[in-house]
Design a protein that fits this description.
The chain has about 325 residues and is of the alpha/beta class. It contains 13 helices and 9 strands. About 45% of the residues lie in helices and about 15% in strands. A hairpin with a 7-residue loop joins strand 1 and strand 2. Bound molecules: nicotinamide-adenine-dinucleotide (NAD).
Amino acid sequence: MKQLHVNLSGGRDYDIFIENGLLRQAGEKIKEIYKGGRIAVITDSNVKPLYAETVVASLEEAGFGVKLIDFPAGEPSKNLETVVSLYDGLLSPDPFPMTRGDLIVALGGGVTGDMVGFAAATLLRGIPFVQIPTTLLAQVDSSVGGKVAVDLKQGKNLAGVFYQPKRVLIDPETLGTLSDRVFFDGLSEVIKYGMIRDEKLFDLLESCRSREELLPHMEEIIRVCCHIKKEIVERDEMDTGERMVLNFGHTLGHAYEKLGNYSTYMHGEAVACGMAAICEIGEKQGITPEGTAGRLKKMLSAYGLPVKAEKVPSEALIETL
Ligand code: NAD
């Protein structure tokens, strides 16, 4: 089992565990850090039929009373209205109302982790929570670092806080049920880590070139990405300096997402276009080594990711930026 420790002040340290089949050990791994008896598992409507039963069974086997709550899958659910419905579910006496001493588990992709984390941070002024991410994007990025948020009508992630989980349990086997589009969308963030910090990771990604070839390396790839992210978060938890490097390609990427009304490009796809564009601009300005954009674009294309945001109108780009 791979294990990383996130060092933060004020008793907010936590561990990240990565292992194939870890969902079946969820109860055991949570028992190590939580002495209470009640847990609410919150998941989305796609993940519920795939993995909720395994997680709930493992928690019950470890002696916990479990409440299971779900919400409709997808980014359009990541809003305050859904959060209110989660509060209702959490406070409902059926089978028990949650108190501050209980624990919440976020089981799902980045939408689930961000929104459940936000609900956990705000209900009763904070209920501890554990992340069990099930998409590649959530496993290498959103479940680590404590940024939790929901979207407002004015834009994405505008209502949020920093609220760290008590533990992160990553089971790479869950990636097996992702569609190719969602899998490669997450791979865009993996490529980002290669670009900002780790040429060996980049080389490995370059040598694989298909989902099947990546599969045997996934545990290690996830460990490397979480290690890079946790080290940066430890040095700049509140995103005022170094953490911004994690936003490589994201300034343009967020604009492309918005110009496509969050439906034309998924997050990672927009970031892929953003990384390629900013490397080209850097090369033109002489601040990025020549050939960088070419090497990046070749790999993005090999994994079926877009390299140019051709599907969104470019006239409003500057204003959107
Ligand atoms: P998502 O949670 O919507 O998951 C994508 C789709 O995959 C959904 O339909 C979901 O139901 C489904 N799914 C999840 N796990 C599955 C599995 N194992 N098998 C089959 N289907 C599965 O989206 P995402 O791409 O995981 O995350 C995107 C969100 O993450 C955005 O809201 C973004 O703002 C956020 N994000 C947050 C951070 C952060 O630091 N907090 C960083 C990056 C992105």
